[in-house]
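Our working data are protein records whose layout never changes between entries. Instead of coordinates, the fold is spelled out as a row of discrete tokens. Here is such a record, shown just as it appears in the course material:
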Amino acid sequence: MPARKALRHPAPRTTGKASARKAKPRKPVARKAAPRISTGIADKPHAVGGVTLYRIDHLTIRSHLKDLEPLKNFYEAALGLKAGKRPDFVFPGYWLYMGERAVIHLAGNAKPETPASDSGATLGFDHVSFRTTGLKAARERLRKLNVKFDEIPVPGFPLHQIFFRDPVGMKVELTFDIAELEAAPDDRAPATGSVHYRT
């Protein structure tokens, strides 16, 4: 019996183009970055005579007690602010936060029979606050100008405040870290100002 020939399995035919073809890596799709909106104002500290201002810290709205909840609800709905942690003041109110910053302080301590007074205390807008460094220099500057002021630590928060009024009675606050008070205790009793409540 003749010997059987080994069966050969031919290799599959390929064309030159197919054998040379390689998978090309996909290029990442370039996405356009969202345009940055500029206010046109540089966010830089403002330093004069040893006192440095950084930003407006918050605004406070004094209201009647009955208006406190509607005010909170309005700012939460209109601006998306959220009521958050607040020091244990002796009067009711809310601190409304924009992210991690309490930008609007509501104080429900206006006397119902006194909508306004000669001291400048009114309903609505109450005072503006600047986040500040240079506590000792600020004291000296105000005293040189014969401006009466009050110094008030914030209960339960590592903050220290100076309050004073401008020539038309508008209340202004300078907000410092409590470490500044510890580093520069006042060697004189602060002048007595006309702050009606402390916040």
